[in-house]
Model the fold of this input.
Amino acid sequence: MNIQHILKYLTVIMIPLVILSCTKRFEDTNKPPYLLTEDHVTPELLLTSVEVNAIVEGKDAGHAADYCGMNTQDDNAPFNDLYYNDIWNRTYTAFANNLSAIIRKTQADADLVNKKAIARILKAWVFAQATDTYGDIPYFESNLSPDDAVSAPQYDTQESIYNDLFKELKEAAAELDAGKASYGDADVMYKGDVEKWRKFANSLKLRLALRLRYVDAAAASANISDLQDDDLITSRDDDAYLFTSNQFPEQRNGSYNYLIEQGRLNPSHHIGKTFLDILKNNNDPRLGIYADTALLGGFGYRGAPLLGGNVPVQEKYAYGNGSVSNRSALWFVPEIEMDVLKSSEVYFALAEAALFNIRAGNADEYFKKGIEAGIREAQDFYDNALPQLPDVLKMINPTWGDAEVNNYLEYKSMKQADIDNFLASAATVLSGSDEEKLEQIMNQKLIVLPADGLEGWAEWRRTGYPRVLTTKNDASLLQGVAMRRFHYPQNEELINKTNFTAAIGRMDGEDDVLNKVWWDANPASPHEHPDTVETRTSPW
Done:
């Protein structure tokens, strides 16, 4: 999945053409010569651009990964009432816009059905993330052709959007035809493999259907019950992901760029207590893959609760001065896997669906397979980072030689005996009530989503798991309560006031980040963490 040979061409579709010349063709003078229209670009270039920009470069997810217990940052403000517009802006100006152009360019040619279907599937993924982030958004009247463009599109309900996403995924999966042309290398995720795209479409459908379990169980079941295991991503070979590239700074791992620019790791980015405790308490062999021990001696692996910047100094003291774990150095190599949807997540989704009789199957078997898939993914994560780590480690620790580097690499490797012991332990067996089993499933699902904060946040909102330790003493505007959605961009009230007003009218008249989106209907979410935030009267 190396994309370096394609990336240098991407700027072609990002730069407007400027043509200034005299002409006798006066009929052309009213055509804007500076626009790069749909006729000038191919579906291949458009698809590559969307895949690279949406997956590799990613989107600003705000504090989404913090709210679900993955990370925490000691210099941030997760409970301030902030605006995060990146997902909105890029969805409408780049991702969905380009994918809609592909669909229009290919819909009349039966030989291009695969190019159209793949664009439909990827567009469903893009819009699913957008509506899960904001709630009701412009959908049916957005990203139309220039001739049909609506300057003030209505905000469609999330329920209607989800219904159409299911339709799009089902129809597009059925359209895929192995006997017709596809994208080839221009598809940097699957190389145009239509069978893998079919499995991705069905697996995305499974993900979205589970979103509805608390708001419309019948609809959840209707969109899951007909999916067979062979229809889904159940193998590492079919996982959807891309790698960052070391060829261009904007395509590299952002954490590596920080290391290059600052000459050190970001000292404020810590492993969340929730994420780390799930690993540590189960003697999980992936612990060292994802985390380092605290810099301050004697603390070992210690996660941080979700603290804001506006908390009592006693709480800051308790988790300061290197007393909590950061992500391991494996996360700071230039070329790193960026996940979209993997077999481990699919197995955990199937385990939940079977547990609550939404779909036939054995929840225990799916749960175990999800853990096994997660172990395989962690091993691949280590193997990919291994050849890149020596240079990174010597940048982080300038005094290290080969001996220190090799010691670190050996220390971080997963030992087969530890893997076997973990897989044979009670941690990999569902037990207790159905709700307790669900908590086990969601805890393990978080561990396989470390590069997908948006998905972790969505699952936390939906189920209330995992349990996240949060301060009760934050004096910020949200007072220690995690966001349930993002604000709409501020300029929407100015440029699309009527439809903006109608949308917030469906949310008690306020564009409030604590309002829940349509599917966020579990009254027990979030579930309380049993611990309390530690305090200390002086720094360590």
User: Anything to note?
Assistant: Residues 134 and 486 are 5 Å apart (CA to CA). The first strand starts at residue 71 and ends at 73. Residues 4-257+327-505 form a domain with the Serine Threonine Protein Phosphatase 5, Tetratricopeptide repeat fold (CATH 1.25.40.390).
